[in-house]
Structures are given as structure tokens and as C-alpha cells.
Amino acid sequence: MKRNLLQCMARVLLLPVALMFICGALVSAHAEYSGPKVRFRLAHPCPPGHHTSLAFEKFAELVAQKSKNKIKVHVFPNAVLGSDVVMLKGALTGGLEMAVSSSPNLTWVVPSLMVFDLPYITSVNYQKKLYEALDNGELGRYFKGKFNEVGLEPIMYCEYGYRDFFSVKKPIRSVGDLAGIQVRTTASAVEVEVAKALGMKPKPLAWGETYTALKEGIVEGEGNTFSFLLDAEHEDILKYAFASRHNYSMQILSANKKWWEELDPQVRSIIREAAAEALKYQREVLAPQSEEEAVKRFMADGLEVSKPSEAELEELKRKTRPVWNLFSDTLSQELIDLVVATQQ
Questions:
Q1: Between the CA of residue 71 and those of 22, 38, 58, 59, what are the distances in Å?
Q2: Which listed site, 49, 50, 78, 88, has its alpha carbon 20 to 30 Å from 332?
Q3: CA distances (Å), origin 158, targets 134, 148, 154, 243, 344
């Protein structure tokens, strides 16, 4: 009861901020759209209620609002159209107009996104600078070029968050406790090597297979954010967490490039405008609120959360730093410098 009361109070306090974003979305900088009706699909892997899901719902709402319902986005959440790989293949071939995939799972198409999997290359302390570089800076132009090369157009770099380690049975109270855990990873080669550097046993699995794998003991742990795991209802099987915050992830919305370029310029403008507003709302309101509430919920449900000391944080960085060198052939120094420049 007390927990529910606290959650309600938090939402009430955030309501004026949320309303500010929603009301701001009502103001449009472009002329009223007078072209033909447009319908397209957006598929993503995120569970209902997660802040990324809410961001895509807000995006669809704003597109309809700004076009007087002449442009409609049909949103398919929770991987109902298939895994990240399946949805992304649809966007690549044109069978699907827009698809969302986590940045680690996108690395098989855009390998340079592995830069964000490098341990501790970014920090939560510099998020605003990273956002600006992605949305309006040279870093964003770099990735737009890489997406375009494979036939995709990046639309939204949604906040996903910093990953921590979780375990279903082995206590994780120190860096050394991570050793030996069979951990689920994404398809990212960097993520696999980070797990190895910490003495863990990585097993890449599609997200849709993860809950069953944890339940059946195929894997013993996973790396993810509190908010995503809560909305995916993993709280009933996870027992321990280590707040390592070892790498940063995004849920990236991209469109089939050929389909995108054939759209009326005004349609593209409306989509871009709606995406920017939904993204701002998600990053500044939804994501922080969601993660904070998720940590409290997990702890109330009995999850033991250990936070590394400054010395342990330095140990994590020291043990995982050699991973950077393993990908020097894949990740250019130019790209690494662009990301590092956002952390100053």
C-alpha cells in the first residue's frame, strides 16, 4: 500500500512536466498536410508499459495529430512480428516500413554501433552531450551515413539505459562474484567479450528466449536495465543485482531507406518533428521516472542490489578496458574519438 502511494505521489509530481511536453507537441512548425493518406507499420521488441514502448506510442499519436489523422502509424510492440533480427530484416528488404532494435542487436547490420558496447566509454553524467551529438552533431551524421549504406534511415535514438548484471541464484556482491555465471548476452561481440573479461560464461540469446532460458537454468544471469526487466516481468525469477552500469544501449528506430525517400517531403517533415518531440519526452521524463520506480519495485520485491564501491568500479574498468583493443579493426579511432568527445 505504501509502495503504491509513493508511486502515485511520484506520478503527480511529474504530471506538470509531462503536460509541458504534451502541450508543446500541439504546436506545429509546418503547414497543414494536404496530401493523400499514408499508412505504415512500426514494429518493436519492447514490452507494453516500458518507457520505450510509450515513446513509440507517443510518436504515433503525434504523427496523427500533426497530419490531422491523414498519416497513421500502426505500432506492433513486444516482438509480435518477430525478434529484433526478423523485424530488422523486414525493414532492410522493404517488407516492413519501420523497425526498432537495440543498439547491440543492430551491430550485425551496423557494426560501428559496437562502440556503445565498449565498457565505460560513456557515462550517465554526460547524457545530454551525447544526445546532442547524436541528434544534431557529427556523431549523428556519422551514423546516418552508416545506416544509409545498408539501406536504412535512422529516425529515433531512444534512451534504453545503462546495463547492470542480474543473477537468478548466485549472490553478486563484488566484482569477483561475477566469475562463473552463465550470462545471457545480446548478439554484440563486444558484450560477449566484456562478459569473458569478467570471468563470466556468455551465451548470446534472442530476447524472446531469455525468460525461458533463465527459468530452465540454461543461463543463470543477464545484463539489462531495471526498467526493462520489470516491464518484462523478470522480477519473479531474479534474486541479485550488481549495479555495474558497464555499457550504454539505445532502442533505435530506423526506416527502409527506399520507402523513406519516396515519401512526400512534408510527410518526412511531420515524422521527423513527431519523432523529435516524442524522443525529448522519453529521454527527459519517461526514462528517468521508469528506471527509478523499477529499482524501488525490485527492491520491495526482495531483489538484493549491490552497488560497486569506487575501488570496485575502477576494478571493473581495469578488467574490461582490454576489450577496447580487440575491436580496433572494426571501430575506427575517428568514431571512438567522436564518442569520447561527448564525455568531457
A1: 19, 5, 14, 12
A2: 88
A3: 11, 19, 11, 21, 22
How many angstroms separate the CA atoms of 287 and 258, rounded?
32
- Quick one: pLDDT band at residue 9, thresholds 50, 70, 90? very low
Distance CA 313, CA 321 (A): 12
Q: Which CATH number fits domain 38-342: 1.10.3720.10, 3.30.360.10, 3.40.190.170, 3.60.130.10?
A: 3.40.190.170
**Host H or E run for residue 299:** helix 287-300
Sheet holding 304-306, edge to edge: 201-204, 182-185, 221-224, 164-167, 240-242, 304-306
Q: What is the pLDDT of residues 293-305, one digit of tens each?
A: 999 999 999 999 9
Q: Confidence class of residue 158 from pLDDT cuts 50, 70 and 90?
A: very high
Q: How far apart are CA 50 and CA 72, in angstroms?
A: 22
User: Three-state SS for 248?
Assistant: strand
Reduced to 3 states, what is the DSSP secondary structure of residue 305? strand
H and E: helices and strands count for the chain: 14, 11
Q: How confident is the model at residue 208 (pLDDT cuts 50, 70, 90)?
A: confident
Which grid cell is 63? 504523427
Looking at per-residue pLDDT, the higher value among 253 and 6 belongs to 253
For residues 42 and 96, give the distance between their C-alpha atoms in angstroms, rounded to a whole number. 8
Nearest CA to 59 out of 156, 135, 196 is that of 156
Give the span between the Cα atoms of 51 and 278, in whole angstroms: 11
Q: Is the pLDDT of residue 237 over 50?
A: yes
DSSP 153: E
The Cα 96–Cα 113 span in angstroms is 22
How far apart, in whole angstroms, are the C-alpha atoms of residue 77 and residue 311?
41
Predicted pLDDT at 222: 98
Q: What are phi and psi of 46, to 5 degrees?
A: -80, 145
The residues spanned by each domain of the chain are 38-342
